Amino acid sequence: MNVRRRHISTVALTAVAALGFGTLTACSSDSAAAGDTGTFDVVASFYPMAFLAERIGGEHVHVTSLTQPGQEPHDLEISARQTAQLEEADAALYLKGLQPSVDEAIGQSPIATKIDAAELTALEEHGTEAGHGEEHGDEHGHEDEHGHDHDHEGGDPHIWLDPVKYAEVAEGVGKAFQKADPDHAADYRKNTATLVKDLEALDEKFRTGLANRTTDVFVTSHAAFGYLAERYGLTEEAISGLDPDTEPSGARVKELQKIAKDDGVTTVFYETLVSDKTAKTLAGDTGLKTDVLDPVEGITDHSRGEDYFQVMEANLTALRTALGAR
Q1: Who's near 309: CB < 8 A, 6+ residues apart?
Q2: Taking a C-beta distance cutoff of 8 angstroms, is the pair 226, 265 a contact?
Q3: What single string gives the DSSP state of each residue in 155-191?
Q4: 15-71: per-residue pLDDT in tens?
Q5: Which stretches does DSSP call E strand in the chain?
Q6: Are 41 and 90 in contact (CB under 8 A)?
Q7: Is residue 246 very low, low, confident or very high in pLDDT (cuts 50, 70, 90)?
Q8: Phi, psi at residue 23, to the nearest 5°?
C-alpha cells in the first residue's frame, strides 16, 4: 500500500487552519462543530467512511468529513482546527494507510472510539495489475515528484469498491456504534442490516451485469479497482500504481499499448478527482475511447450520481460497455 510519510508542521497547520471540516450530513446544520451537537458525533476521514456512518447512524449521528468534496483524499493534510475538533468528537471512522496525516491525528487524539476500517476486513496486495485472484506487486520504496516516500505495507486500501468487503466493514462499524452508543443500538443494528442488504443487491447487479462479456481486461488511470476486479474475475491494468500521483514509465505505457491490442481493450478509464492527461494521451496513441470509472473517493457536481450506490451503478454501466457485456 502506498503510505505517504508526512509530519504535520506548525507552519502547515497554521496555514490551513481556516479550512475546517466539510459537513456531509443533513442531520445537522453545516455550521455545527463536532462535539457540541447533542448527537453521537462521528468524524469520518473521507467519503466512503462518512457514507457508512450516515447510513448506519441515521438520525442519531452527526457526521463530519475531514476531506472536502472534490479534494483528492490521498493529498489531505489535517488542519489545526480539524485536529482540535477531532478531539471533541465521540468517534473517529477512518481507513488506516490511505491518509497518513489522518492516521497521525487520530493516533494522537484522546477520542474514545477509534474505528479503523482496515481492521474490519482482510486487505490484499494489488499493484499496477490485479485480477483473477492473482497478486501483482508494484514498485516499492520510490518517491513521487513531491519527494514523498512511498511503500506498500499492509495492502491495497480501496476496499469500498468491492461491495462484499464494504459490507463486512459496515457490519464492523455497526457493532462499534452499538457499543459506543448503546442507547441507540437497536437502530444501529437495523440500519446496518439494511445497508448490508443493499450492498448484497449491488454485488448481485455486478455479477449478473458482467457475466457475459467479450474481454476481462480494463485499463484505469491508477490501481484503485483491484478488489473489484478480483471479485468479478476481471483484470485491472493501471497506468499508475496505487498512488494516483505516480507517473508511469515509458516501458509501462508501451506494455499497456500491447495489452490493449492483444486483449481487445476498447476504453481507457480516468477519474473525476485526478488529472485525465495520461489516460487521454494513452487512449489517443492507441486509438481507444475514454470514459470515467469513479473510485468513489468523494462526491462532487461532476460525479455520475449523488451517493455511493448511484456512482457504483454508473461504474457498472461503464464497465459493461467497455467489456462488451451483453
Answers
A1: 198, 202
A2: no
A3: ----GGGSHHHHHHHHHHHHHHHHHH-GGGHHHHHHH
A4: 333 333 344 433 333 333 444 557 999 999 999 999 999 999 999 999 999 999 888
A5: 22-23, 40-44, 61-65, 91-94, 113-116, 129-131, 217-220, 235-238, 267-270, 289-292
A6: yes
A7: low
A8: -95, 125
Amino acid at 239: I
Element (H, E) at 80: helix 80-86
Q: How far apart are CA 4 and CA 24, in angstroms?
A: 26
What DSSP character marks residue 197? H
Neighbour count for residue 10 (Cβ, 10 Å):
8
Please answer whether residues 199 and 312 qualify as being in contact, where contact means their C-beta atoms are separated by less than 8 angstroms: no
Model-level pTM?
0.81
Give the single-character DSSP code of 228: H
Share of the chain above pLDDT 90, in %: 59
Residue 314 is inside which H or E element, if any? Answer: helix 308-323
- In one-letter notation, the amino acid at residue 37 is T
CA dihedral (83, 88, 93, 94) in degrees, to 10, reads 10
